[in-house]
Amino acid sequence: MNRRAVLAIVALVLAAGGAVWFARRPRGPAYYTGFVEGEERVLRSEVTGRVLEVPYAEGAAVPADGIVARLDEQDIQARLASKQHELDVLDADIRTQEERITLVQTTWQRDVSARRAELDQADAGSRLAERTYAREAALVRTGISPAQTLDDRRAARDQARSGVERAREMLARSEAEQRTITLAQQELASLHAKRELTTAQLGELRVTETKYTIRAPATPTVVQTQFIWPGELAQPGAAIVSVLDPTDKYVQVYVPVPEVGSFHVGRRVEIELDSRPGQRVPGEVEFVADKATFTPEKIETRSDRLGQVYRAKVRVLRDVERLQPGTEGNVYLLRDGTGPP
């Protein structure tokens, strides 16, 4: 047997062995490797203040809306007291002005009524004096009454006329007092506007006061990192602690482009972590990125394009609290949640 025949036989044997291996290779469900992660929430200060207390250390469980830090609020309390005093003064000024307007209006109306009555009386007296003077003048012309009497009647008429003019002037002065009432009402409106502004400013200060107490989210969490300690000065935007919802964890994986069609949102999966081999927990695909991540960044060949992957999140549906962030594991696809794809 020549050398060429031997090589042909060897090639056939290797091909047959490869075919047998391919036919008998393990056909387990498709899986993707990823890490357990959680969405940490960094709680920050919104105001400037010295830290008095950070009750929960790293790893401590924080109840819903629990206080994670207290800041010194002496400054805001002083501003609140000052603004409250300003509001009290305005309230007192408003009450005084309202009483003054009520008193002036009552006095003014009474005074105007009295002046009008005086004018009516003076006008009636003037008309009577005019008639008396006219009669006396007729008597003097006939010689029945002496001229001296006519002079007296003329003086009385002129005096009555002067009385009417004085009464009109006094009535005009009294009616002009309405301008004083108008000005007082405008001042009262200005006081009310100042009160509304001061009330709004007081409300803003009270909202700011609540920010000196920093609270956790409205769900139980666990402190992951403490960034600041009592005695330090917190500035607006300064991180206080980061917390993690122990029930809000997921496994992040990267799915190759050719397989992303079967890795869709809502697909049921099973998760097996390296820290718990042989134990699988149910999960569900919750998110698949719209854009692929390129590997490498510059795509030049088809094989490079096939290296693109999509970032995806798998929500853990059971025993979430027992999963430690950072643990590596595998995500296995299931068909309708009951078997391998």
Q: How would you describe what is shown here?
A:
By secondary structure, the protein is α+β, with helices and mostly antiparallel strands. It folds into two domains: 26-72 and 220-333, Elongation Factor Tu (Ef-tu), domain 3 (Beta Barrel), CATH 2.40.30.170; 74-210, Helix Hairpins, CATH 1.10.287. The chain is built from four helices and twelve strands; from the N terminus they run H-E-E-E-E-H-H-E-E-E-E-E-E-H-E-E. The chain has helices at residues 3-24, 74-142, 147-210, 302-305; strands at residues 31-44, 49-53, 61-62, 67-71, 213-215, 221-226, 233-234, 239-256, 268-273, 280-288, 309-316, 328-333. The strands form two sheets. Strands 1-8-11-10-9-12 form a six-stranded antiparallel barrel. Strands 5-4-2-7 form a four-stranded antiparallel β-sheet, with no helix packed on it. The longest helix is centred in the first third of the chain and has 69 residues, at 74-142. It starts with a helix and ends in an 8-residue tail after the last strand.
